[in-house]
Amino acid sequence: MPAETVQDVVTLTLGTSTVQVALKGATVFSYTHDGRERLFTSSKSSVHASDPAAIRGGVPICWPIFGPPDLSNPLYAQLKQHGFARTSSWELEGVQETDDAAEGVKAIFKLEPTEAIQAIYSQPFLLRYTVHLRPYSLSLALSVVNPSDAIAALAFQALLHAYFRLPDGVLPADVRVTPLESLVYADKVAPHDGKTKQPERRKVVDVDGPGGEVDRVYYRAPDRLELAFPAADEVVKVRKSGLPDAVLWNPGPAKGAKIGDMEDRGWERYVCLEPGLIEPFQFLDPGKTWEGGIEISFN
Ligand code: TA6
User: Is the CB of 216 under 6 A from ligand 1?
Assistant: First the structure.
């Protein structure tokens, strides 16, 4: 069966590929390609809505903000880090399958303001998220509608916080990311703490910061990015659209061990490469739709 919903998890299947999406956050928490899991999700994290915490892994959707809220702005002051989309219960709006296997199978999810959301966020919005499994790729597309008939623009950031699982025997420090050379980035690791921006001078960026920690926001990144695992002779290709920026994150051992829902040494098993719209905020006029997304494929 190409699409199946059990409890609050939707599974799409296409040949040997599967994708699993939790209604909590419309979070894709598993993607198997060629019979191998390609995303990391901590075994200490629950994908079910009975646990209100965001899923630690997969591809959480950060919306309407990325990072901690700007407490001086009343629109966002009551939000938690990365916003509410990743913790809200989304609705499965529909599934589309065709007889053409190359076209694959799609599930479309929807989020509109609930009472709980309205208690912390006053703006009207409509989010749709399309998860499209094809034989050789997985596409994730977020659309934002400003349904307001007032003059006010809907201002937001958006980011797909993808946790890419590393092949067995590959550690974050072995991962090479391209092409980031000459992009301006903000380093969120101490002592920089995101305050200064600097140009990336390396042709190939290895995921190995001080003490193993890497947390960088690259602005205006190219739409085709690659995570290479040379030891395993593998490449993950991430093609983005509508998402100008990209974050590279791994907490390293000291910070990783402090993350409550992280499985034992879990930080050794993934690198986050997170296409996003971070700076400046998108201002979406009433009646307009914004779209952004990623396609994940392999060499
Ligand atoms: O995208 C990187 C980041 O913002 C890091 O600074 C780190 O905090 C990470 O996301 C995880 O955030 P979370 O709220 O899921 O613990």
Answer: no
